[in-house]
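User: Hi! Is it possible to get a structure for several chains at once, not just one? Here's what I have:
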Amino acid sequence: MSSTMIGRRAALGAGVAVLAAPAVLRRARAQAGPLKLGVPTAITGTWAALGAQVVRTCRLWAKTVNAQGGLLGRQVEFLFEDTQGVPANCLRKAQEMVERDRVNILLGLMASSEALAVMPKLAEWNALFISSVNGAGSITAEHWVPNAVRANISGPMGARALALHLRDSPQTDYFCLSLDYAWGRSSVETFEGLLRGIGKRSIGSVFAPVGTRDYSTYIARIRQANPQALYIALTGDDGTAFLRQAAQFRLFERMPIVTETVDMLFTRPAGEAAIGLVGGSRYSFAYDIPANAAFVQRFRAEYNELPDTYDGEQWQALDVLMAAARRANSTETAALVAAMRDLELSSVKGPLRIRACDGQAEQQGFVVRVARKEGFPHPVPEVIRTYPAAEVTPACRSATFA
Amino acid sequence: MDPVALFTLQLLNALSLSALLFFIALGLTLIFGIMRVINFAHGAIYMLGAYVGVTTQTLTGSFALSLVLAPLAAALLGLAFERSALTRLYAREHSAFLLVTFGLALALTEAIRLAWGPDPRQAELPAALAGIVFVLDEPFPVYRLVLIGAGAAAALALWLLLHRTRLGLLMRAASQNAAMTAALGNDVAAVRAAVFALACGLAALGGALAAPLFTAYIGLGTSVIIDAFVIVMIGGMGSFVGTAVGSLLVGFAQTFGNFYFPELALGATYALMIAVLLLRPGGLFGREE
Amino acid sequence: MTPAAPRAVLAAIAVLAALGFVLPGYAVTLLTEAIILALFALSLDLLVGHARLVSFGHAGPWGFGAYVAAGLLLVLQLPLPVAALGAALATALVAVPVGWLCVRTTGVAFAMLSLAFAQLGYAVVFKWSAVTGGSDGLPGVPRGGGPLGLDWLATREGFHVLAALALAGAYLIARGFTVSPLGRVAAAVRENEARAQALGYDPRRTRLAVFVLSYGLAGLAGGLYAGFARYVSPELFFWTVSGHVLVMVILGGAGTLVGPMIGAMALFFLEHQLSGLTESWGLALGIVFILVVIFAPRGLMGWIEDALRRGRRASRADP
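Assistant: Yes, the chains can be modeled jointly so their relative placement is included. Here is the combined structure:
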């Protein structure tokens, strides 16, 4: 900080000094102290339940890593800020973390719109963003920036795994239901394209307005269309509400229901209504490899709960960060970005590789089915198929499959 | 599906949605009728009803008890809030009321998140209500018929309250002319308190009834409050009959509109409200302010 | 309001602008956003305070202005100040037919009509994804400078000064309107519509004038916001935004022009600081609202005026 600046500050009087002084102190501390990781996420608001997964997994990771001596010898500290899932808030909180707290690594952003708002700023901020939640295809296609990587399975990748699984099923005529927003529309579009690719067809689709709670009229419409199977791209409260109402109308008895992603967050409140639901999965505690078993055990010991989709995704994203930092032997942005190129590692979902061309982590695809299982108080997903990365990852900087 | 069966099914769907909307809109309109203000916290109260209902059912196993305790808890909260905060504001501009209920909505939503956590809560319907009946060979959930019955019963009970009891008489009088009602020696403050508590109780009952369909989650209140505003405006602020008609209109418009014209659904309710307000600014059954 | 106020207000805005050169970068960005919100709240105060038309749809002109500016910046690559002014004009233009319909009513009906139009805007932006990007919004809006050294306006400090200038200009326009003959008629219509009508004034046309001016200034605020955030999305139109800005106006003190600006900045910083301190900031904020309403009946502005008056009285009493 230059002396002229301090001179000017002094001239402007006490009020300004009060505002600025903590920043000076904070900056001094940031140089020597622990490695700070910024997590602007949805702690309150409609996405709060997903944000809670991100936060608790970050805490567990920090505890685990710090107990082992930290990352490259530095203790890790997470800064959490509440964005309510609103892009404007996310932008502000992220900027403050970067500029005030000297954070250069951002994680755990909730809505795709938040990620899309932050990504164009990354170069200016000299910061790195590792997505663990955001599914929109465009994040690794037309809106991709070099300082962003996506450790998680994207929406199109989830749809692809499901389509590969359905190729072998007897049903040919599908009906698609989703909410009328970007994720839902692109999911249905991708799915319909994939159906054609495997010699099946969509006999109709409907998009309910965002905020729809009563699905009875859509259930009537599905009954009238009378497809052999139903595809839904609904998650969170929307998914729960639909599954409960579909079960009340005995829709499952007429046709199998498949979904792009199965999260316990929406299948658990659906209770018995979720049994039999088949879908893609971004992460499942039931994936049976030693690395995941160890994570699930540690997680249950800490929280006495099963890790859900974004617990696993967040853990994997943090593993990506750790591998990149070790490869670069640095936590500086440029070094990390370079180390992320073609980075290979193994995490709770098995092997993955961050490809250089669009930052997408190539990884296995999963298909799960919700079932009643010994030892669990509610129906839980079980992994029924896995597909190698080559089959479920779209071409570079593309959100669709040729 | 047979067209007659489809139509019958949709008729029942529309009626059950209307019934759910009716509970929350009714409270809003009662409060407006007597206090001339909009209660922004109404959605949060509805959400509170869903949470209290689910928890009651989880702890006691009784769905019926949840339908008693949820409105009771909300009515008590409403009463306490009316006595401690709202009662100081009646002499002031409406904007004060708006801000204070906005504050209550914020605080209550956060308090619910603190008390119940961010994950949604649910309880299963009792077996007697979880079944189906066949309507022209189409399965239809028994519980939706229960909702229609509950809506009709609430309408009847409110009508009797308004037209056959002394409290109802006072409510109607105070909504016509509060000053005159007070001048005649009636305790208008007590009537206001009773109305606010009653309105909160109705919203919470709506929430407890809705929980088996939607579960209890943060954001339940936000999703429904605008629909309720629209109903109250279309029907006419403060009009009991108007609210019933408005609930039916919106319930039918959403059920049939989303079926035949799903692409227009997002804007349709607002277009309907604009049309009604331009033709009759006081709403279909309301007086012009 | 005391007649000396305008000069004090302009001086305060000048200080805010000057802070842009002194404070650390992130604080400048926060302050810029607060200034834009102050402009937004100021525009709403014309309707709520001056015409007593409680709009519950002010997210409409805000979102519309933001999308227009984003379009001008993205497609035509116009300089930032031109895009913001274009947003203001376009919003004022659209406000003519919308306002013509809305001001046929007053009171709650007006509030709900303005809400309905804002929500229709939300629906259109949401559905028309080929142009608006749908729910993904439009990321990467450029902050174009332009010729004549205007490039400086695209920097953090430059943009901050631009926002402060816009606020000062909007304040002068709003203040000028309230003391103008038309503004006085609007006040007369607010106090007694029948009498104003008997005196030969057309209440509806008067209200329309306030409406258009208010929407134009809100469009300016929205346009600046698009350049500020470099991102627009349908949430800008959502009714919670309307509720939020209405709270800013009431919290600050409706009808004072200055109060809503203070209310906007106070609420913005309060939310920002509280949400950094505690997860339960919503609870704290809700309780603050309730206490302010009960103990500061005329909003923060009334509270400040009372404090100043007490201070003056105390200093006079002191020997």
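Residues 43 and 277 of chain C are 31 Å apart (CA to CA). DSSP finds 14 helices and two strands in chain C.

User: Great, thank you!
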